[in-house]
């Protein structure tokens, strides 16, 4: 195992089996991975990558995670979307892309991987900013999502703005702060939309320096108080990137939690 937690971001992994588009823009697409083995079909797992919504981070850094999930027998789609710093990225394009992708990908994946995708709503696995986008997609169309596994999500955009996470990342996404564009925060901030109707598990490392674990603690507590089906799993000695690293000590907990979301649905 590498001593550099960020090593997973550039670690080589097998290429996807094929790529499908859910829109006309070059970034409105997803890479599909065929599940290994001959087990019965399972729900599609849609991986929503992080990177604070910025253009310099794309789905490639989730290749090791996606390949590992396919090796466990899951059909996987790595969702790409327009990001801040790109034409059409930010508000509202980043959010509408993810919602559109989540809506279209089960059908596209079932057609591309015949017999391997169960005819049920997908499970969303989102990391960091991708965790925010997964929560947003589930809040917007809960009937299209079977469950959410949010890994160190930016689950409170207003607080993330106040903390200035990643030097203005939230302001770049939404075009300002809560006082300037309050309606955008009401629409996009998971903390403003509780309880989430979709069964959700949040996993967060207590050593996370990119997204403080306090954001998840406060979000999950608010969701539970409002009657939501949500729980928080805190991992001591885990930082931000171990949650997407199949070689990390956190990985068995991630896969066990995904399995519970799939099997209990």
TrEMBL record:
InterPro entries: AB_hydrolase_fold, BD-FAE-like_dom, GDXG_lipolytic_enzyme. The keyword Hydrolase applies. The keyword Hydrolase applies. Keywords: Hydrolase. It comes from the Bacteria. One of its GO terms (molecular function) is hydrolase activity. Gene3D superfamilies: alpha/beta hydrolase (3.40.50.1820). Residues 31-218 form the BD-FAE-like domain. Residues 1-21 are annotated as: Disordered. This is Alpha/beta fold hydrolase. It comes from Micromonospora radicis.
